[in-house]
Design a protein that fits this description.
CATH class of the largest domain: Alpha Beta
Number of strands: 10
Protein name: DNA-(Apurinic or apyrimidinic site) lyase
CATH architecture of the largest domain: Alpha-Beta Barrel
CATH topology of the largest domain: N-terminal domain of MutM-like DNA repair proteins
Number of domains: 2
Helix content: 25-40%
Structural class: alpha+beta
Order of helices and strands: HEHEEEEEEEHHHHHEE
Keywords: DNA damage, DNA repair, DNA-binding, Glycosidase, Hydrolase, Lyase, Metal-binding, Multifunctional enzyme, Zinc, Zinc-finger
Strand content: 15-25%
GO molecular function: 8-oxo-7,8-dihydroguanine DNA N-glycosylase activity; class I DNA-(apurinic or apyrimidinic site) endonuclease activity; damaged DNA binding; double-stranded DNA binding; zinc ion binding
Strand order of the largest sheet: 1-6-7-5
Subunit structure: Monomer.
Radius of gyration: 20 Å
Distance between the termini: 31 Å
InterPro entries: DNA_glyclase_Znf_dom_DNA_BS, FPG_cat, FPG_Glyclase, FPG_N, H2TH_FPG, Ribosomal_uS13-like_H2TH, Znf_DNA_glyclase/AP_lyase, Znf_FPG/IleRS
Shape: elongated
Length: 274
């Protein structure tokens, strides 16, 4: 957390305004303030000397990475477990868990907040090197049902850990994987190479449906970290242990898959896909 819909919502807010802030493309960074050096994954000297004076040209998302395209470099932000960013007006004080701040020439600043200190920043002229390990985007038009089935069938892994593997598919996390598997009627422990083409197509459709719904609802706000989403009010399985399945009314069960809390309907999601 945050996952693809939350990161996409943040990227959209930085591009267009929203979540209490204004758009940042076209704004020049006058000063960078590194409040906790551990959050910077690239050399500090380049960050301090080359970042000031650069203008934000575009804001993009790749997987769970925020990418701020600058004049000559890019600033990548991975929010990990507890990260968030804010755009605030001049005079607004920084907060307790702010780890970096980027002060624009017009007085605004972009703050990177991360209570647990898992998030990271990269300042690099080659952002593609940082994201090279990522698999395809779920909405990539080249990811056809047949291509997705081929990717699944050549792995011999349980479905949920595979979907959480960012080198297989970029952007999925615990929430949207549970929701997609429930929608597709597939058990998280089912082996990827056991799926028939119709199962793979159903899973791809379900992944895209839950991600689209999450983006439309500005993501899910399930704790104090991520602000402003309401997809949590539409969960079918995630964190609904003991509550009735919205399809068949069987109580949702919680199990652990790959050290991750996982929520399923034992009736709608049999171990043997059908």
């Amino acid at each position: 957390m945050p996952e693809l819909p939350e990161v996409e919502t943040i990227a959209r807010a930085l591009r267009e305004g929203g979540r209490g802030g204004v758009p940042i493309p076209g704004r020049r960074i006058e000063r960078a303030e590194l409040l906790w050096p551990g959050c910077l994954a690239t050399p500090t000297a380049e960050f301090q000397h080359l970042l000031p004076g650069q203008t934000v040209e575009a804001v993009e998302r790749r997987g769970k990475f925020l990418i701020l395209r600058l004049n000559t470099h890019a600033l990548l932000i991975h929010l990990r477990m507890s990260g968030d960013v804010r755009v605030e007006a001049a005079g607004q004080p920084l907060q307790k868990h702010d780890r970096a701040a980027f002060h624009f020439a017009d007085g605004l600043h972009l703050a990177f907040n991360d209570a647990r200190k898992f998030g990271r920043l990269w300042f690099t002229p080659l952002p593609q090197n940082i994201t090279a390990h990522l698999g395809p985007e779920p909405f990539d038009e080249a990811l056809t049902p047949s291509a997705f089935h081929q990717r699944l069938s050549t792995r011999q892994r349980q479905l949920k850990p595979l979907l959480l593997d960012q080198s297989f598919l970029a952007g999925m996390g615990n929430i949207y994987t549970d929701e997609a598997l429930h929608r597709a009627g597939l058990h998280p422990l089912c082996r990827s190479d056991a799926l028939q083409p119709q199962h793979s197509a159903r899973l791809l459709d379900s992944i895209r449906a839950v991600l689209s719904d999450g983006i439309q609802r500005n993501g899910a706000s399930i704790d104090w970290v991520y602000r402003g989403g309401d997809f949590q009010n539409n969960f079918r399985a995630y964190q609904r242990t003991g509550q009735p399945c919205p399809v068949c009314a069987t109580p949702i069960q919680r199990l652990v898959v790959g050290q991750r809390g996982t929520h399923i309907c034992p009736r709608c999601q049999p171990l043997e896909p059908h």
